[in-house]
Please model this.
Amino acid sequence: MSFKQQLIKMDQSYYIKARDLDDAWFKTIELLLKYGSKIPIDFGSYEGQVRLQLPYFTIEILYPGTRPLAPIVPHHIEPPATMEYIEEYLGYLMIASPLKCEEQYTYGSRIELQMATIIDNYLKFGFNTNQACISVSQPGDIFLEDPPCLRNISMMINGDPQELHFYVYFRSWDAWCGFPVNLGGIRLMQEYMSERIGVNPGRIIAASNGLHIYDHVWDMAKSLVVG
Model:
């Protein structure tokens, strides 16, 4: 099936179906180069630069556990992620470690307790619920200089055999460096939770209304797609 056949464009929304995390990253970069709009950044991260951005993006990854989790890139391109970095990110994602002096939050400080509660609820009450959702953001985040990009991870168990599926939303999402590390870490978290609950890890469906690549990586992205 060709890339065009796996891409659905609906007005200002783009949907991709990908085989695994490696396939997902390559397809996402290609999509941004083809359809992204040049958006100058008025304020926020990299203020004053320009990014290629899509108005709304969803990707469904059928087999996100396929190894390696990090993208396999040509020799002339520095890898945007490694397995070591993904495993390090997993600790930041899942564990509520003490905040460093410059940190106002970590993902783990928001996620760890909610994740443990969801696992307990599945084991105590069963799998048929719409309440398995981790909220990473808080109302006060609007006042932070660097509020969380990852906003929520919703979960559902279904299928035969039963699988734990993740539905992830990012308010802003750096497709070059953030995407492969984020999804690699989230997949490891999904595998951890699935093992604790006693089901198989399933698909990842991720969405963002701020998927982008910054101008300083455009040339590398073009060379990746050209081959």
Notes: The radius of gyration is 18 Å. The mean pLDDT is 94. The chain has five helices and eleven strands. The domain at 4-226 is CATH 3.30.572.10 (Thymidylate Synthase; Chain A).
